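Subject: Sanity check before I submit

Could someone independently write out the structure tokens for this chain? I want to compare against mine line by line before I put it in a report. The sequence has 181 residues.
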Amino acid sequence: MTRWGIFDDGVLKATVLHPTEPTGADIGLDLTGCSVVALERAPDPRFETASPSTGAIESDAMRAAEAFAAQVDEIFEERALALAVPEMKQRMHRRKEAEARALLVDPEAETPMLSAEAAQTGQTVAEIAAAVLAKVEAAIAVDADREAARRGAKLAVRAAADAAAMQIITNDFRDEVSLWT
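---
Independent answer below. Compare away.
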């Protein structure tokens, strides 16, 4: 059995013992807009002894923090999937980047993709290569900012004083991520 916390706007409204994540129908509560977080697996008296009450409280806080940190990761992954570039386009971008980097080492390097684009656009291969590398560096900077936001949210959740603060941090991160394009 697991003890589940039902949070509404970060406020613990109820705890229930249930073998799996409960639904509203399972426990007779309306869970609309609530977060359901695993707080503690009930000890099996055959194998474990109950921890002291102070340890359980600390354990509950740690479990809630880890559950909210996991929500931050889920929010991040969902948005990353929504923004994902199709595989074919990824391969094309990787190839163009490789050709552009090869030109930096050897100005006579073979550049079939960049050359084809130059023929279509009227730009030089060097201009296209410079633009490709600039886009790569910009994407790296955006990815670094996004990863920093994710890590910062997880650290803030773990440092939060209570579940209400954890919920606010998670909601703020969700709002921030929703603006990513």
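---
OP: Matches mine. For the report I'm noting this point. The chain is about 65% helix and 15% strand.
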